[in-house]
Design goal:
alpha/beta; six-stranded mixed sheet; five-stranded mixed sheet; 25% helix; globular; binds fe (ii) ion
C-alpha cells in the first residue's frame, strides 16, 4: 500500500494545482490513499470551506487534515461534525467541533488511522501535544486497532516535530510535519520503522513568502505600507511525501519526498 501525504494547500494557486493534477499523479505514482493538509486552502490563504473539501474528495483526496487556521472560515464548524474525512488537531481545547482522529476502511478492508496533532511551541494555545500523544499511544495500537497509522504534526519548530516522530517510532507508519510551508530534506525511516519527514512543505506558489505575496510580506517586515497577507497566485508546486507500507508490520518500507510542478520541480 502506498500513501501520498501533501503539505498545506495555499490559496487558489494550490487548490487549482491539486484539482488539475492530483488524479493523474495518483495514477502515475500508483497511490492508494491520499491525505492533504488543507488549512490554508481558502482564497484568503486561511481556513478552508465545504466546497473546497468536496472538490478535493472528488479529485482523489481521502482525508483532509488541518491546524491552527481550521476555524478561520466559520462555515467549516458545522461541516466538520458531518464529515468524517475532515480532521482538526486532536489536542484542541475541548469541547471543539469535529474530531482529531479517525479510522478509515478502504475498499480492500485495510484500516487506515489518521491522527492530526498540533504543536505547543509558538502556536495557538492547545492541550499538551506530548500528553495527548501518550494517552493516544496507550489507547490505540498498530495492527490491532488499524493496519496503518499516519500522524500529521502541525507545528512551527523542528525539534518538537522531530521528538513526536521518535515518540511514535514503531507505533505509526508515517509521522510528517506541516505548517511551516517549507519542505525539509530529511525523509527517512526511524530506528523502529516509522517513516518520517519534519515538514512536508506546501502545495502553493513558492515564488512567495510561505505562499503569500512576497512584496506585501517584505513590506510588512519593513513596516512599510502593506495590507493583510494574501496568497501568491503563480504556478504551484505540490509538495509532500510518498510512503510504501509494510502490511505485515504496519511500518514504513520506503519513504521519499514528492515534489511536482512549479518552482521546486524546476530547481
Ligand atoms: Fe498552520
Amino acid at each position: 500500500m502506498r500513501i501520498l501525504f501533501l503539505g498545506d494547500v495555499v490559496g487558489i494557486s494550490g487548490c487549482s494545482k491539486i484539482l488539475n493534477n492530483l488524479l493523474s499523479q495518483i495514477k502515475k505514482n500508483k497511490i492508494d490513499f491520499v491525505i492533504v493538509n488543507a488549512e490554508n486552502s481558502a482564497d484568503t490563504g486561511v481556513g478552508l470551506t465545504k466546497e473546497i473539501c468536496e472538490d478535493f474528495f472528488k479529485c482523489g483526496v481521502n482525508v483532509i487534515t488541518t491546524g491552527n487556521h481550521v476555524w478561520d472560515q466559520k462555515e467549516i464548524m458545522n461541516f466538520i461534525d458531518k464529515e468524517k474525512r475532515l480532521l482538526r488537531p486532536k489536542n484542541l481545547f475541548e469541547p471543539s467541533p469535529g474530531r482529531g482522529f479517525e479510522i478509515y476502511i478502504n475498499e480492500h478492508g485495510i484500516k487506515i488511522g489518521v491522527l492530526n496533532l498540533m504543536g505547543n511551541v509558538f502556536m495557538k494555545k492547545c492541550d499538551d501535544i506530548f500528553q495527548t500523544s501518550k494517552h493516544f499511544i496507550s489507547k490505540y495500537h498498530l495492527k490491532e486497532d488499524y493496519d496503518i497509522l499516519v500522524v500529521d504534526v502541525h507545528g512551527e519548530i523542528t525539534s518538537e516535530k522531530n521528538a513526536i516522530g521518535h515518540f511514535f517510532d514503531g507505533k505509526a507508519t508515517l509521522v510528517v510535519g506541516t505548517h511551516t510551508h517549507i519542505p525539509t530534506n530529511d525523509a527517512r525511516i526511524l530506528e523502529k520503522g516509522t517513516g518520517y519527514q519534519t515538514d512536508a512543505g506546501m502545495c502553493g506558489d513558492y515564488n512567495s513568502v510561505i505562499g503569500m505575496n512576497k512584496e506585501n510580506s517584505i513590506n510588512k517586515f519593513l513596516k512599510k505600507d502593506s495590507v493583510k497577507h494574501y496568497p501568491s497566485t503563480g504556478d504551484a508546486t505540490l509538495s509532500g511525501v510518498i510512503v510504501d507500507c509494510d502490511m505485515e508490520t504496519g511500518l514504513a518500507k520506503k519513504i521519499k519526498s514528492f515534489i511536482f510542478g512549479g518552482q521546486l520541480e524546476r530547481a
